[in-house]
Amino acid sequence: MVLVAGLIVALVALAALQYRWIARVSEAERDRLKASLDSAAERFCADFDRELVRTSRSFEVAEDLGDADLERDLVDRLARWRSTAAGPKLVRELLVVTRLERGEVELRRLDEPAGRLVPGSWEPDLESVRRIFEARGRVPLLDERLPGLVLAPRNARPPRQDGTEKAERGPAPRGEEPGGGADRRPPRHHVVVRLDLEYLGKEMLPRLAEREFGGREGLAYAVTVAVAADPRVVIFRGGPRVEDATARTADAVRNLFALQRPGDEPDPGRWVVAVHHPAGSLEDAVTGARRRNLAISLAVLVLLGAAVVVLVSSTRRAQRLARQQMDFVAGVSHELRTPLTAMRSAGQNLADGIVSDPEKVKKYGALIEREGRRLTEMVGRVLTFAGIQSGAQTFQAEPVDVASLVDGVLADCRWVLDEKRVAVERDVAEGLPEVRGDAAALRQALGNLVDNALKYGGSARWIGVGARLAATSGGEEVLLSVSDHGIGIRRSDLPHLFDPFFRSADPSAAGIPGSGVGLAVVRGIVEAHGGRVTAESVPGQGSTFTVHLPTAAGKGRGA
Ligand code: ADP
Q1: Ligand 1: does its nearest atom lie under 6 Å from the Cβ of 452?
Q2: Which residues of 214-239 are buried (b: 16+ CB within 10 A; e: fewer)?
Q3: What is the 499 CA–ligand 1 centroid distance (Å)?
Q4: Which amino acid residue places its CA nearest to atom 14 of ligand 1?
Q5: What are 392-436's pLDDT values in tens digits?
Q6: Cα angle vertex 108, ends 103, 113, to 5°?
Q7: Residue whose CA lies nearest to ligand 1 atom number 23
Q8: More confident call, 550 vs 135
Q9: Cα dist. 214→49, 87, 121, 288, 321 in Å?
Q10: Which of 181, 192, 332, 496 has a CA that sits 20 to 30 A from residue 236's CA?
Q11: Does ligand 1 come within 6 angstroms of the Cβ of 489?
């Protein structure tokens, strides 16, 4: 018991430790995943922006080029780009936007096959570019919706800021103030590099995503690139589907599509990449894994606990069985010794000639015969028990008349009934069908029940033996019952009554000698006849044992 308690305390302690340990491991795991996801997103954006810088460098034209020079320069630059760039398809076309006097904005496009700048019209998809130039103010470097790069001429004068002018080198000035110095400078052309949305969304971004978030099959994470100012405008979406792919719920969020001129205030990036774990979020994935881990360790601990319980209960069962077998030996010896003692002293008296009166001799003879019969019954019961246990016992299958069976049993114990002056109430229904089986074995089974009713029948001096027909779900069966008004059986003993060697620990029953095999024999015989035996009892008021046997006509299987 101390050992078991110790084991259980150890199990509980182990469970608590396990719980805390798993919690810490999953926290660490989450932090690790988060950090590696963050740096992957970081690299994804940096790689993309590096491409933007490279592109912008390729199309920076010099300031103050005349139209013809500008045209030639652009044709050259585009041809060089097409032949040397890693992703030549990134640039869809080149546009030249010029702010004319009177605030008008002129649009030209480079006709690539012809190698010429041709007038262009403001088609709806160029609306965002047009707005940039029509708004009188600084021209941003990027148009995140077109999407495109808006490149001012190199070496342009810096904008006037706080009344001072300072020289600035870099891809382009940060903005300009048309009007103020417009009359001193020729019209300035902005080159708009229109990027190919199709190529971005279907080739370039998928390739970058595959490099940073690739798993065994495709992307391990859901990756969404959208316009920061309007997340409904999605540039690229890849990887497993998640319910909410917005930046609000993402495991990692970074901005991209940023281009900076030296000295500019940093541009955070006009697009946003949102990365989601396929489980919805990293938190969910880690919580799920943690739950699974907890469930598995809990199952292992429960299994261990169950093993302890099984071990303890089987040990106790083995102990109980050993004790019952000891009791059996003691009970059998006692039951053997009592009749033997009686027979020996009767024989001794006869042999010594102490008894010579013929009446008395007759009485002694009857006594010897009776005790001998009790011994025979006793030995027969133990042998049947052994036969049933080993499976060697065989039973005949012949028609048995129920009324004669009951009368035979009562005749067998007539002398005990007379000796103890016990009243028998016989209640056998008329016209019962025959049962199929071994008449001698059935007689022994019923005899055991009557024996018990006499043994445990107390001072009531009454037993009831009955037989009747009852309907069952599959047909009908014969019920043979033996009742007494004796000491009864405790409720807790009922389930064990028919176990071999079982004897009640109830003091009123324990004082009565017995071996504990009688009811096991009854059950063995009845079950071999395709029937069953049940017991009902009210402690202190009496018991009824009922044998249920299939009728010969029914589908009973005689042994
Ligand atoms: P035995 O009578 O030799 O002990 P049994 O197998 O016939 O063995 O009975 C097992 C136990 O069942 C008995 O020890 C007794 O406690 C209980 N028992 C059996 N029949 C009766 C009965 N009619 N009334 C009360 N208890 C009974």
Answers
A1: yes
A2: eeeeebbbbbbbbbbeebeeebbbbb
A3: 11
A4: 503
A5: 889 999 999 999 999 999 998 888 899 889 999 999 999 999 999
A6: 175
A7: 453
A8: 550
A9: 20, 20, 42, 22, 65
A10: 192
A11: yes
109 neighbors 95 (Cβ within 8 angstroms): yes
Tokens of 10: 């150890």
Place of tokens 């990449």: 273
What is the rounded distance in angstroms from the CA atom of residue 471 to the CA atom of residue 556?
Answer: 14
The residue type at 402: V
Helix (H, G, I), strand (E, B) or coil at 339: helix
Structure pTM? 0.57
For 481-532, the three-class secondary structure string (H helix, E strand, C coil) is EEEECCCCCCHHHHHHCCCCCCCCCCHHHHCCCCCCCHHHHHHHHHHHCCCE
Write the residue with the smallest CA distance to atom 7 of ligand 1. Answer: 518
Architecture of domain 394-558: 2-Layer Sandwich (3.30)
Question: Computed from CA positions of residues 215, 221, 225, 228, in that sequence, does the dihedral angle turn out positive or negative?
Answer: negative
Q: How far is the CA of 368 from the centre of ligand 1 (A)?
A: 26
In the DSSP assignment, the letter for residue 156 is: P
Q: What is the rounded average pLDDT of the residues 453-477?
A: 92
The DSSP result for 211-272, as a single string, is HHHB-SSSBSSEEEEEESS-TTSEEEEESS--S--SGGG-SEEEEE-----TTSPPP--SEE
- Number of H helices and E strands in the chain, helices first, is 12, 17
| Bridge partners, residue 271, by sequence | 227, 256
- In sequence order, the β-bridge partners of residue 236 are 225
* Residue 177: closest CA among 132, 137, 129: 137
- Name the token pair of 27: 């926290």
Per-domain boundaries in the chain: 2-54+199-280, 59-158+185-195, 394-558
Q: Is 515 in the pocket of ligand 1 (CB under 6 A)?
A: yes
